[in-house]
Amino acid sequence: MTANKNASILQTEDLTKYILETSVYPREAETLKDIRNANESYPMGFMGTAPDAGQLMAILLKLLNAKKTIEVGVFTGYSLLLTALSIPHDGKIIAVDPDRKAYEIGLPSIKKAGVEHKIDYIESQALPVLDKLLENPSNDGNFDFAFVDADKHNYWNYHERLIKLVKIGGLIIYDNTLWGGTVAFPEEAVLDHQRKVRQDALAFNEAIASDTRVEICLASIGDGFTICRRAH
Ligand SMILES: C[S@@+](CC[C@H](N)C(=O)[O-])C[C@H]1O[C@@H](n2cnc3c(N)ncnc32)[C@H](O)[C@@H]1O
Ligand SMILES: O=c1cc(-c2ccc(O)cc2)oc2c(O)c(O)ccc12
C-alpha cells in the first residue's frame, strides 16, 4: 500500500472523495480553492495541507480564539491563508519557510482575501527563528497556536521550542504523523523513498506520546494530525 494522491490515510479514495465533496469543498473559501488549484500545476503541489484537515484546524483556531500563531512550513500558503482567515482582524502569524518562491504562488490569493496584514513571513530555516524568539523572555507562553508542516526530522526540535512559546492551554499541531499510513506497515512493505520519513514519524510519535507536558490526539485526518495541548 502507498499513500494515495490526496495524502489521506482513510480506507479508500472513494471515502476521502465523499468527505471532501460533501462537507469540505462546498464550505471552502474561494481564495483557498485558488491556492489548491495553483498547487495542481506547481512542483510538489501535493504537499499542501489536506483541506479536510485544514477544516479541523480552522475550527480549533476559532474555539481557542487564537490571535497569535506560528507556522513552520508555508509552501504555497494553503494552511497559512486558512489560519489568517480563522483569526481576528488584529491577529498575527509568524510564518517561516526558506522557499519564498513557493510563498509567492499563494500570495496573490492571500492579498485577495484581505489578510496579508496578519502575516509576518520570514524567509528562513525555522530553528534559528524560533531560537531568536526564545531569546526574548516576553515571548514565553505568548502564542496561542502553532502549526508544524516542514522537515519531519526536526519535529522534536520544533517541539522543544514551541512548547515554551505556546501558552498553557494553547495548541501545537504536527502534520503528516501517519505518513501515508506507513507508520503501521511492516518494515518490508515500506517503499525505499518512504523509509526515512517513516522512521522520523515513528520516533516523533513515540516521543510525543510520553511527553507529559502535553495532552495529545493523533487524529486520522489528512495525513495524520497530532494535536497537542500544552498542559503545564
Ligand atoms: C509540506 S510543505 C508545507 C505545506 C503547507 N503547510 C501548505 O499548506 O501548503 C513543507 C514546507 O516546509 C518547508 N521547509 C523545509 N525545511 C524547513 C525548515 N527547516 N524550516 C522551515 N520550513 C522548512 C519547505 O520549504 C516546504 O515549503
Ligand atoms: O512528500 C512530501 C514531502 C514533504 C517534505 C519533505 C521534506 C521537507 O524538508 C519538508 C517536507 O512533506 C510532505 C507533506 O507535508 C505532505 O502533506 C505530503 C507529502 C510530503
From TrEMBL:
* Keyword tags: Methyltransferase, S-adenosyl-L-methionine, Transferase
GO MF: O-methyltransferase activity; S-adenosylmethionine-dependent methyltransferase activity
Q: What is the lineage of its organism?
A: Eukaryota, Viridiplantae, Streptophyta, Embryophyta, Tracheophyta
Q: What is this protein called?
A: Caffeoyl-CoA O-methyltransferase
**Organism (species):** Vicia faba
Q: Which GO terms describe its biological process?
A: methylation
Mind telling me which CDD domains this protein's record contains?
AdoMet_MTases
Task performed by this protein: Methylates caffeoyl-CoA to feruloyl-CoA and 5-hydroxyferuloyl-CoA to sinapoyl-CoA. Plays a role in the synthesis of feruloylated polysaccharides. Involved in the reinforcement of the plant cell wall. Also involved in the responding to wounding or pathogen challenge by the increased formation of cell wall-bound ferulic acid polymers.
The UniProt entry's sequence similarity note says: Belongs to the class I-like SAM-binding methyltransferase superfamily. Cation-dependent O-methyltransferase family.
